[in-house]
Design goal:
This protein has about 375 residues and is an alpha+beta fold. It is built from five helices and 20 strands. The chain has two domains: about 55 residues, no CATH class; about 290 residues, no CATH class. The relative contact order is 0.14.
Length: about 375
């Protein structure tokens, strides 16, 4: 009994000599210390030396896990080095063609630069009468964010476009008269529907740093004469510079290449309505989707314009309303279809309108619109 009493007393005395820890106090102190040090890190972005932390806030094995090492925060990245998605979104468009699960993939359209030829026509190519000119004015490649130059594709949905104008432009005009075997068309080369961008685009540095096009569209009365009964030639003809056709919206069509011979739709800044000026000559390099506003009984698109050889160009849809692609068309970007006969089609992939002339093109008259203005106007600036 005496021995048991001595053991109990000894154990009691040993317990009394141990340090009494307050877990609650420890937690509060530690949290306060960590919060203070974290604030110092955010302010100074310097590494904290663990030895500088007060002893009262250090964790031991008895009170919890060790305090994690606080590392130096990375240097801030300048905002100019990152894309401002909220800003760029104001300059993008999302056409229905890109959401119909038909036709080419708008996020991976092939870049047309390598599909340009001056030798022989090929399907999906632009057969041009004029070779490439790398010294011509154009966009700045290192500023373009929507083209994958390594993969040679571009993203229609990420491309930047000039917003709608808030200024007054002259009203566009289009008249068409059939006289015998001739189709006489008169325009002033401004959109009949009045839809045009905010040219000049000097108020938009996000765009001018990519493409410093100084052009301003202006009214230019022009008369175009096409065959109303065109015939296919045995050998296709190369496509010229300048106006290769005209839309029923009163705006001329240029071929798919810019002044350098590169993909104009992918590389150049055009407005949200699909056009831009070469000097004062407003034009389209592709058919704006809104112009494809007529449908035949079988879902086939209606006529959106005429090409220089007299053949019509229809919108984006073929039979049953299916979107057309290069695979559906021949080397000149057209096909024969029942009672419609031979005709071209618009596509959202290069060469967009025509790859060559299937018929005999009309000669260029003095009043036809050329790059930079009429042929008797200022020299060509840029397509």
């Amino acid at each position: 009994t005496i021995l048991a009493t001595i053991i109990i007393v000894s154990l009691f005395i040993g317990c009394e000599t141990k340090e009494v820890r307050d877990p609650t106090a420890r937690t509060v102190n530690t949290a306060t210390s960590i919060g203070t040090e974290a604030a110092q890190v955010l302010e100074t972005t310097k590494t904290i030396n663990p030895t500088s932390i007060p002893a009262t806030s250090k964790l031991t094995e008895a009170s919890g896990p060790p305090l994690p090492e606080v590392k130096t925060l990375p240097s801030a990245v300048p905002s100019t080095a990152l894309p401002n998605l909220s800003t760029e979104a104001k300059f993008t468009i999302n056409p229905t063609l890109c959401n119909d699960n038909q036709g080419p993939n708008c996020t991976e359209l092939r870049l047309g630069d390598d599909y340009f030829t001056t030798s022989l026509p090929e399907k999906g190519y632009l057969y041009s009468c004029t070779g490439k000119n790398p010294n011509a004015p154009g966009s700045r490649e290192n500023k373009i964010t929507w083209i994958d130059f390594a993969g040679k594709t571009w993203n229609f949905l990420q491309k930047l476009w000039l917003p709608e104008t808030t200024s007054d432009f002259d009203q566009g005009s289009y008249t068409e008269i059939l006289s015998g075997l001739t189709r006489e068309i008169t325009i002033n080369n401004l959109p009949v529907d009045g839809k045009i961008g905010d040219w000049p685009m000097t108020a938009y540095p996000i765009l001018t740093e990519i493409d410093a096009n100084p052009g301003i569209p202006a009214s230019q009365k022009s008369s175009l004469s096409y065959s109303s009964n065109p015939e296919k030639e045995a050998t296709p003809t190369c496509v010229s510079l300048g106006a290769i056709g005209v839309t029923k919206n009163g705006v001329v069509i240029y071929n798919a290449a810019d002044a350098r011979g590169e993909d104009a739709v992918a590389r150049e800044i055009v407005d949200v309505f699909g056009g831009h000026p070469a000097g004062t000559s407003y034009h389209y390099h592709f058919i704006p989707e809104r112009l494809d506003n007529e449908s035949l009984g079988d879902g086939h698109s209606g006529i959106v314009g005429y090409i220089n050889d007299g053949f019509p160009i229809y919108g984006y849809k073929g039979v049953d309303g299916n979107e057309m692609s290069n695979d559906d068309l021949d080397v000149c970007h057209g096909h024969d279809h029942g009672s419609l006969g031979y005709h071209y089609h618009a596509t959202i992939e290069y060469p967009y309108t025509v790859g060559c002339y299937k018929g005999k093109p009309s000669s260029v008259e003095s009043n036809q619109i050329q790059p930079g203005g009429p042929s008797n106007g200022p020299p060509r600036i840029r397509p």
